Structure formats: C-alpha cells, structure tokens
Please model this.
Amino acid sequence: MSSGNLTADRRFAYAQMLRKDGDAVAAADLLAQTLELTPHWAEAQFTLAETLAEADRKDEALAAYNAYLALDPADSMGAAVKLALLGANSGDALPEAYVRRLFDDYAARFDTALVGKLKYRGPQILRAAIDQAQPYGMFSRAYDLGCGTGLMGAALRERVQWLGGVDLSPAMIKEAECKGIYDELAVGDMLNALHDIESCDLIVAADVLTYVGDLAPIFETVRTKLDGFFAFTIQKKDGDGFALGAEHRFSHSRDYITALAYQKGFEILLLQDAVTRQEKGVDVPGLVAVLS
Model:
C-alpha cells in the first residue's frame, strides 16, 4: 500500500528491510521519520507499533498502537489483538474489520492452504460428532456460522433439507456461492445473522469460535433460535476460562464450555478432545461439542 509520497514509501520499504534483518531499533527510527512526512498513514503507524514491540519498547509500542486506532477506528489491521497480547486490554473478541480483511485476503487459497498445509479436518470431525449424537434422519433447517468457503456445508449437505450460512468475509462467501452448496448465504456478523434467521434444528460453528473470546452472547442467541443441536469445534485451553494466543486465536477450556452450556440452558450430549488442524506440523489440541 502506498502513502502517495514517494520519499515516505521508500523509507517505509527500507524500514521493512531493516526489520527483516533484525534491526528493529533502526527500523523504528526510520518509520518515525516516515510518519513525519505522512502522519495519517495508518499502515506505517501500525508497522511502527509492531517494530517498537519487537525492539522491547513496550510503552512506546502501546502508544503507537493507540495512535493507529485513532487513524483506523475499525481496526482492520488488528491493533486490539496486539494490545491484548501486551496486556493492555481484555481481548474478548477480534475486531470484525480485522477478521474480514484477513479472510478476504485468504479466500482464494483458503481450501488449499487449510486442508493441504494445516491438515484441517474440522468438518469431518464435526460431522462425525453430529452423526454420533443423532444417527438417523434428516435435519430440516441447518445454519453454518462462519461458513467460510463452504467446507462445513459440504460435509453436512446430505443430512440437511435446507442449509444457510454466514461469514464476515465477502470474498469467502463468494467462494462458497460458487460451490452451490447452500440454500442461502449472507455476509455479516454471526450474532446479527442469528437474530434474523428462523428457528433451526441444527446450528454449527466449525473452528469459528476461535475468533471469539467470550462465548456467552453466542450461546445465548443460539439458544433462542435452536430446536435441536448446537455443534462446534474450538481450540482447547488447559485450566480455566479462555485466552488469546500469539497466533491470534482464542482457546477455551473444557470447564468453561461445560459451565457456560449449563448456565445458558443446554444439555451436553458430547464434549470430546479433537485435533482439527496443525500449526507448523504440530497437532493443535481442540474440543468438539454437541449440545441440545
């Protein structure tokens, strides 16, 4: 992305080279000079914050992230995530604009990267769990939260009469539309979509709750639209509660899911360990759940 100022662009590019070579201090100084020329360049401000954090200048990094948020309140680059990892906020959820940008950029290569490189098999695991909880018959209405390119929809299609889906990313929805799996697709937030749909006898969330920390609002809203099963996968956390990891994904503990399910009026039919993906060739611990 260009600032429109050739000198600033050159300084920015050189600063990125210095970062790559491990000289975060020199890179931060050069980025500060860049911002003197283009003080409203949000990307340079965010990059300065990242570079200051790499240089272990935490207080300056915090100030730089907040300065970025003043330029881009929607937070399309995820400053709130960085602030949470630095201990400056609670980190209950990822910014919608950040998630949308992330997956819009990822959509065209999503299936290949996820299945081929990360060995993703969340839809197969979730389908098997649903079949275990309800071995027979068809579901009349199913809704896929965070449907992405339609991997979960493809796994479900033969067991559902009507299938809807929602995703924050327009590019991901476009990929899903091309597959012809869903009866209805929408671009938007999960909670808003749930408020708008008719009651379903199956609601699924395959590896999408990893982008939300506090799951209480999701559980509450699903409960009002459910006449059957709520099935999902999550990344597993040891101990209690939930936490945001360096990979910008939330993990949730078994005790957290158990307590929240009972609190919101669900019966737990299945809650098991599961590995839906790998990171750098290593299995990522997870959980698969089916509630009613």
